[in-house]
Structure formats: structure tokens, C-alpha cells
Amino acid sequence: MPTIDVTDQVCPLSFVKAKLAMEDLAIGERLEVRLRAGEALANVTRSFEMEGQRVVGREQESPEVWRVVVERQV
Amino acid sequence: MPQFTQEQMERYSRHILIPGFGGVGQQRLLDAKVLVLGAGGLGSPALLYLAAAGIGTIGIVDGDCVDLSNLQRQIIHRTADIGRPKALSAQETLTALNPGVRIIVHSERMTGENAAALIAPYDAVVDGTDNFPTRFLANDACFFARRPLFTAAVFRFEGQLTSFLMQGSGPCYRCLFPEPPPPGLIPTCQEAGILGSVTGVLGTLLATEVIKHFAQTGEGLEGTLLLCDLLTATFRRVRFKRNPACPLCGDAPAITRVTGHSPVCGTR
Questions:
Q1: Which ipTM was obtained for this model?
Q2: In the beta sheet, which residues pair with residue A18?
């Protein structure tokens, strides 16, 4: 599963960078997104869901960083 | 996948965020080559939005120089540009706006002799001209070159807009208007007047249709004439079809090559 690190970005660029990585995948494939806790975590997961993608897992790596797994649906 | 630099990702982020547009749509814009005829009232907003949107290569055809009376609507030029070639003035504004797009200056009028060579390197043409001979010439040249044509016209508070795909079949502009009107029948904008913001609305609609076409999103205006009466804020859509008797794209065309129309209007 490919991973994209967007901890270096601020909103909405964290989602823009993750979305660009998602566009490389086929329907049904999964992307792991490494992002910062707080605003980025909330915005990126919500934005993917609003686009019709499925968030299938989330795991806290450290107090500041999360890993979210998103499956491409559309 | 499109490989965007951090600068491109930020610059085009509001496009990439749009569902159904994304990085794929943005990359299509960056790969597109568009020729804009006229850096005037329609061309100014069209050029500004096309460059801002990241259309990768933009050609500007205009043989005129900036005049004080242009500045009420031709918002790509500045007061300090009076007397300078419009294509050059427009290029400077666009490069300052988005240094990432390639702007090619053609400081000349399009004629029957140069039309095919001007159009050939581009994927599509935007007609922002101010006179009928050039408008018909653009149509004929795009038909023979099979280049999509996005065309608009304005008059006082009114405007019209449509697109032609020109993939060998029609319809074309001559299906709507077979021949140019006789010189002097229709007042030019220097005789009739034009509200500057009306050219802004129509020029912006032109850019929107071009961007949609290249991003491959939405529905175009092919076969539909959009009529705008901005004095009453009214928009109407009129459907039209290929005319089998069209002198250009009809069943027995009388026009078989691009001929040299000479513009009758030296509109300032």
C-alpha cells in the first residue's frame, strides 16, 4: 500500500497532496496518508468522504501524527 | 500521475479540490495550447482567466496598439501601455500573473494568408475579434484545421456565445450566419457603444467554456447559442443544428478553402 506524507502541508494543501496521490490508484486500492493531528486529520478524512472515498482505518503514530487508510471508491 | 511542483500544487489547489476536476483536469489544462484572437474587450478577461487557470501555452493574435478608449473594457492593459502593441502588453500582464504559462505573441492581424499557419500549432481557438470578416475567417480556418472554436460577440448591453467542435462535421458559425453582413449595416462598437463589464461577462464565459473543454468536465455549448441581455439580466439558450445548405460545412459546400477576408473595421 502506498503512503503519502502530508505532515509538511497546511490545510487545504494537506488534502490536495493526498488527493493527487489518490488519483494514481485504481478503484478499490488503498492509500495510507500520514498527517498531523487536529485540523489536518479532521479535514482530510472529511474531504475524502465528501468525494465519495472510504476511510477504512486510522491509527495514532505519535501525539502529533496520525496514519489514515483510505480506499478509492470513485 | 501528474507531477506538480509545490508551487503548482498551491497555485492550482482550488481547481484540484473540485470533485471531478482534480490533478488530472489541471494537467490537461497545463498540456493545452490555445490561440486567442484579439486582446480586446473579450480577449482581456478570457486571457486573464486562461493564464490564471494554467492553460500551458497561450497565443495572442492582435495587430492593434492600446488606445485610451480601450481601457474602459480591455482590462489586460494599463494606462501606461497606451500606444504599445496590444499583444505585447497582454503578454506582460499574463506573464506577471502566471510565469508558469508560455505566452506567444503574434502582433499581426489574422488574414486569409496567415490564418492556417497561425492556428496549426494550437489545440483550440478563442474568437474575441471585433469585426465580421475576421469572425468568419476564424470559423473557416478552424473548420479546415479541425480546431474547436469558442466564439462570443457583444453589443451595448447584449452578448452571444457558442462553441463549435469542428471535427469535420459541423455545425459551424456559417450555419447560424451564412455570410458576413454588408459593411456598414451593423454598427461597430466604436459607433454603437459597449458597456465594459458586458465584455467582461462574455469573455469570462469564453474562458469557462475553454477550461471545461480541456478539463473534460461538464457540458459545452456545442449546438447551443447563449444569448445574454445584461440590461435585464436575462440569459436564453437557443438550440441550433448543422445546416445542410451551409456554404462551409453543408452537403454541397461552396467554400472549399480559406479565403482572404480583409477586416473593414479598424475599431479602436
A1: 0.93
A2: none
